[in-house]
Amino acid sequence: RLGAKTALVHGRSVLGGNASDELGVAIAGASASHPHARETGIVEEARLLASQRGSVLMSEPLRMLTESEDNLSVFLNEQVIGVRMADADTIAGVIAVNTLTGDRTEFRAKMFIDCTGDGWVGYYAGAEYRIGREARHEFNEDLAPEEADDITMSGCIMNKGFVGFRAVKENKRISYSPPPWAVQLPPAEKFGRHIRRVNTGEWWLEHPGDIDDLWDMERARDELIRIAFGYWHFIKNVWHEREKAAQYRLTDVFIYLAKRETRRLVGDYILTQGDVQSGKRFFDSIAYGGWPIDVHHPKGIFSGEEGPFHCNVHVPIYTIPFRCLYSINIRNLLFAGRDISVTHIALGTVRVMATLATLGQAAGTAAVMCVKDNITPRQLAHERKRIHALQQTLLKHDQYIPGVKNEDPADLALKATVSASSTATHQLFAREHVEPHIIHPLNMPRAVMFPVGVDGYIKSIWLLLASERAEPTEVTLHLRGAQTIGDFSSRTDLRVARAIVPANREAWVEFKLNFKARTPYLWVWLPKADGVYWRLMKNAPHKSCRAWGGDGAWHVVRGRGQYYAFFTEPPIRLQTDYHPQNVINGVSRITEEGSNLWVSDPRRPLPQWLELIWDAPIHANAVYITFDTDLNPRWTPFPPAPECVRDYELLCYHDNRWISLAKVVNNQQRRCIHRFDTVSMTRLRLTVHATHGDPSARVFEIRVYRE
Asked: How many Cα atoms sit within 13 Å of 218 on the Cβ side?
């Protein structure tokens, strides 16, 4: 897309890696733990294509994207088995064998990006690398072991999103006897895991970490097959809830291995636990992460009562430096994927695919700059002007970098003023906005925090509670205040209210408060109540969150769907910052600092328009538009997010008349680029005729270029 001739050399018959049709690992990232944090750029483009097909599998979307690129040649079934070096620290070509014919091909280039996961290109070239766990003292990581070792996280055998095996339900009871070579798992009382389903396995069907997924992959696969059969025996014959599986028949056990960790190539910087836990912002940031430090137990499925994790620690949004994406000793080698320059502990948060996809876009963009300017990745990294250019190019192509704004001098939109047909000034949250989600037992204190809004008065708060008890249950609600979001430290009750939860059903329960808030946030909590449950909801007022644990031990949880269900009377009314000028403020997503979004007045029917105005005529031939595809959910929504603009027209004002530049019907993408013959204009208008359901037009960004 940036003009470089590119070869994608891939060892399998379909694209997608762990997210391919062969394996089907879901693409996770920072949005699992943070609001409005889903990764954008190429990965969002691909995920939206997948969601249009009602799927999370990425092979077909990636085929569609790659086939649309004139400068990209894809070579499937080509397994890289070696390199040819120009000198001791420069790669001249990679040698691949066709897995179907056995033919060998050398691919020669100026820059190489190792996206093998296992770091094979780097290994063949003699790049420095690491395997296993660092000692605690090496990087001052308190989650690391005392002594270094070669233990890595196990992968899983998978197929099309199923883990380990597939089972189908019959209309009769099915018995099962395991083969003699199936593993023996810990007894039910010491199993240490929660079984959520019986038609397939869980991510924790893992072998011990001393089995080598890199050099002994067949043994690793075979051990996981033994575990799959042993686990099915556990479900059918040992598990205390085995009746749930009584009518299920085992139909498939898989053979493809989705790896989590093997070799990590060493760059000029090694990302550490301290970097991610501190939310560090690097001068050469090119991407971000936010998945927890999710490191699995070194004993795998055999850890028993110790559970499936070595650690699973929440982290703030942090950035990843470009210096982690190129080799410390091979001049023209970049890398992207789980083989980047991080410690074993830091890999626990970086390794998820949405994060890694943004690293791929960053590495590819940097490679183009290196080729065009005849420089090495290290030269790019150590010149602030070039790093700034790399960051600006990534932003232009919709890759978000925390703390970096659009300052592209070529973007003519930055010189415009912006007006709109209407603007939303307030946002309501009432009962009709609640989308029920999963349910949690009140087996501990639980709480939800929300902004008070412009009115600040709460007559009543309603909670969606359920009871499995035979008699009505009284529940006590405590109301407290907070100055900042996520601060559950107050132990001062502003109000205490009691209400009755009906027996044996779910219902909205009213707690009368009659309270005028004096803090920007309020939170309510319920104590432990056996047999009572609190429903979660998928959405909430901006900057809401939940917590669990109780005084002195509240654990805060933020992200899409991480709110206990509530609404207030009167409804919460939030003042918004949906100004037209936001579309050129340099940030194209909702952040803690603001919405960075224009939204038309929902009381005014569509069409609505947004207009850029210049004092003097400009000449342009390209417009980049960023719409709202709702980056709050962990996964891309299907059907399309109602906020996404569906039908629109782009017009310019030229020679005292409006000229149509583009008309689009049934758009489902966040980023839309329109190119046309160069035209002089003093105004550019985007007219939104329809969305996928929202009453308002919503636009994050408009860029204008003469390319």
From this structure: 0
